[in-house]
Amino acid sequence: VQLQASGGGLVQPGDSLRVSCVASGGTLSRYIMGWFRQAPGLERQFVAAITWSSGNTYYAHSVKGRFTISRDNAKNTVYLQMNSLKPEDTAVYYCAASSSGRFLAASDYAYWGQGTLVTVSS
């Protein structure tokens, strides 16, 4: 599975941004798709996940109610809509695919995109 993330940028606190991840090369219905983020000096952190087949979603406590993960089957694309952004959301955001049935840890994912930088600053 190949993953291509895009959509990062510089926004102000309180703004919204949507990042995208286009997937190709596999039977996507088998996968759980996840978004992680990594700030400088910190470990990669789980943000959200969605099961491709059923659309069930899961969120980290820090983003629940502000971020929404979704997928478009026709476009083989997973989105992360981020609202009410805070400076602490600043990080490189990575999309990933898991066929293990687990999704909370980075080690659960076999496939990773290249990351897209989101900077929240006034």
Topology:
Layout: E1 2-6, E2 9-11, E3 17-24, E4 32-38, E5 45-51, E6 57-59, E7 67-72, E8 77-82, E9 91-98, E10 111-112, E11 116-120
Parallel strand pairs: 2-11
Antiparallel strand pairs: 1-3, 3-8, 4-5, 4-9, 5-6, 7-8, 9-10, 9-11
Detailed description of the structure:
By secondary structure, the protein is mainly beta. The protein is 0% helix and 49% strand. It is built from no helices and eleven strands. The N and C termini lie far apart (37 Å). The mean pLDDT is 96.
What structural category arises from helix and sheet content? mainly beta
Helix content: under 10%
Low-confidence stretches: none
Would you report the number of β strands? Answer: 11
Continuous helix count: 0
Task: Jot down its keywords.
122 residues, mainly beta, 7-stranded mixed β-sheet, 4-stranded antiparallel β-sheet, 0% helix
Quick description:
This protein is mostly beta strands and 122 residues long. It has strands at residues 2-6, 9-11, 17-24, 32-38, 45-51, 57-59, 67-72, 77-82, 91-98, 111-112, 116-120.
